[in-house]
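Sequence of Transporter (Labrus bergylta).
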Amino acid sequence: MRLVLPNPGLDDRIPSFEDLKRMDKEEGGDRPKWDNKAQYILTCVGFCVGIGNVWRFPYLCQSHGGGAFLIPYLILLVLEGMPLLLLEFAIGQRLRKGSVGVWRAINPYLTGIGIASMLVSLLIGLYYNTLIAWIMWYLFNSFQSPLPWSQCPLNDNGTGFVPECQRSSTTDYYFYRVTLNSSTSIVESGGIHWPIVVCLLAAWTVICICYIRGISTSGKAVYVTAILPYIVLAIFLIRGLTLKGAFTGIKHLFTPDGVEGTGLAFIVFTEAITKMPGSPVWSVLFFIMLFCLGVSSLFGNIEGVVVPLKDLKLLPQKWPQEALTGLTCFIAFIISLLFAQHSGLYWVTLFDNFAGSVPLLTIGLFEMIAVAYIYGMDRFNEDVEFMIGYKPSFFWQASLRFTSPLIVVVILAFYLVTLGQEEFTYLVWDPESEKFPALASVPYPSWINAAIFLLAGVPSLVMPGYALCRLINHNFSVPLNTLDNGSERLKRCDF
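Predicted 3D structure, token representation.
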């Protein structure tokens, strides 16, 4: 006997196989679609392989055991990541809706999963595009010889080099003091750093232009943004392996040793570039590669915000795609000014640590429970067979039913327990610190708990919160035909 929770009306909320065939014929010309399979595959690759693979993953690997970190990573990739990827691709393709529409069709009480996904996409997109702004700054400054971070600047009277730079390193100084002009605390905002504001505006403008017509424009952009990084990485790999000491570098990859955190791509890699002949050329190639990786990732994030906004029907439905995309990017740019302060680096670190951790775990857990025990694995298997010609193997079915949800619960429990036992600290650039030029570890202020709750708690709680809100309001609601405007829709959780 298979455990499937009661879900009345499901057959009426999702299209049948016959309906899908008819829709392909009747709506094929009107519905946005990829020009070919290559665009779809490249878009998926671009979303899955992003700037985090160059900026975030290496320092996480080094700070958690070096090459040994790859062992649990690969295990969880097979037991957790791949089943979730299959689930999301398959259920989205079967129901042909965005994140809100899919879960609302399975059961209206699951709409909160889509809302949570939208919030996480927005939060991650905010600081990811800030990284793109930093990349654009470095790219613009790469067209110089020598590179501006290859030597310390002169002091005000021109009699020597800046002491702060001489005490640290040229790449450290350029990142923390020239690029970001970082304050010594997250509490000290220091005002707006205008060069980063300009780069942020340029970054959000590029994203808006590339996505403003939906997949009709982003589908063409991925030919460059998804392919070029691999060409550049291959060039760097070949060049790196031919340099003296290449074997030592490979050996170091598997040696546990904590590194520069969010500054890895902007400090370690930039310093390596300065050692290479023709460094400006290599610098331009490197930051073009990072730019392409970042832009291709953000296409998915913007899609994860724009489509749910349309599905929620909180904005006028007559708005064209261009207007909705433009409004989304404009609001995101305004919020991103938080990262353009002199304390912006510390806010990026905070978002990186909490916006994409607990919320993603809880969303994945709810998605697997929803498909396996509310939508039904038998129905899901039939859907996959209809789309690709055969059912998922026993491994995929067992993973989605038991293994993957159990792993998420265990990881989530250990993460929360560990988090509760540790003091929240972050690294700051402080020339007055005794440890300088190493970054100083300082505790977060007490009010940061409120910010962490907004980043991690709200997206996680919106899923059960929405279901509870809908249950209460539908038990004590007024007739639906008396409620027409958006504010009343919010009050009764009916979107």
